[in-house]
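Predict the 3D structure for this chain.
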Amino acid sequence: MFVTDDGTETDLDLGHYERFTDVETTKHDNITTGQIYEKLLREERQGGKRTLGRTMQIVPHVTNAIKEFITAELKDEDFLFCEIGGTVGDIESLPFLEAIRQLGFDLGHAKVFHIHMTLLPYLKAAGEYKTKPTQHSVKELLSLGIQPDMLICRAENAFPDKEREKISQFCNVAQADVICAPDLESIYEIPLRYKEQKIDLRILKHFAMTQQTKKSEEVNKKWSKIINTTKNTSKSTNIIVVGKYFGEHNTEYKDSYMSLMEALRHGGIENDIDVNISWLGAEKLESAEFPAEFFENTSGIVIPGGFGVRGSEGKIETIRFAREKKVPFLGICFGMQLAAIEYARNVLGIKKASSTEFLLNGKDDCEAIVCRMEEWIKAQGIERRSLNGDLGGSMRLGGYPCEIMGKDTLAYDIYKNCDSIGEGNMIRERHRHRYEINLNYRERLEQRGMVFSGLATEASMYGKAISEQGIFFDIPRLPEILEIPNHPWFLGVQFHPELQSRPFKAHPIFTHFVRATSKHGLLV
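Done. Predicted structure below.
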């Protein structure tokens, strides 16, 4: 998933766009079929002019709504990228393809450029590329009324010009507009590989625009520097990510942590350090005796975001290991909450310290160090969420301000020289969570050494007051960052810093963390 600053929850595509373009996306940059249908049905129930007295249809009602979304909120942009996900021929994408066909007709060919991405498989046994899947995909697209202006062909390796010529001939696309997109060692090599094939010049030519040579050279230098850093660095660090969204062999489903993985790499680029990331399923750490051998040759540990009780005890034991063995540690969202629980259990001696997220249907056999906001402000005590209760719409999503507390903290050291810190030591970070640290335990945690070095401002979603049955409760400011002094590097954050990290400009938390792990050395 990816979360924009205005609180829109999307898949990873917008994250890739932000990382590559450094342009912040919003709720106006993503739409789903369900959202289109919901909008139209709501309009129809309210007697909107679009459907009043008429039968709602895919064409024109759904396609018009899609076109309206695409062209809305435009100001002075030079280009609008519009990606239609899925596969040509899938029933889900047909209304969207029809909408962009109409849009191409409405605006005229001079203002629209269709790029179609296809698969070009290589058969090792025959020693040849097969162009038939691309031919059939283009034929399917043509049957829908769209002639691609350019083809980007995904392949394992660069294919020869004879294949380019064949594709051009059978797909009615200029040979120079058949672009090879081979597998690469780093995703950040892609812009330079595309530029080598003059993809930028071909698109500019279509729109009768001239290249800004100086700006183009500056961008090329940035990408080249990134590639050189990732391939030629002499320093390295080993970081282990302990999560729950892995397969049996800790290799599947790593896309669950794609933004985190990229942010760690950005921290490496910033420090000229090669970051070696290994993955470990938290459930494997829940044995009677903590398997410390999993952390041999490790310089840093990350506990990422997540939901639910599965694997939580393994993560808590990992945090204890990192705290006691002085291993650099970063806890993100759920990782921060578990860090507070671990500290309460093993430093404060609260053996039943836990989160109400783990206790459904009214069980009260824990001390809730972490709970939902409405749970711990109710006068009658803790209210548990039912197993069958709603989950949707109950999260704190998007960007919220946070104040760094004190200049003698790790948090201040991380942010002090960054563009992201504003007047009054204010930062803004993106959130995606339901649970908060219970403020009833904050003073006890602080008395035993934990430092809350970042607090939500009163302008944040829950930071000022919340109403229940007409009664307003004044709520102290929520913890956003925790740290432990007298430790090489121990930080927990309630937000998701990985969502704002860029290859050109790593998020300061990852820059600082990667540097700390490289200085720490390997844990043997």
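The first strand starts at residue 2 and ends at 3.
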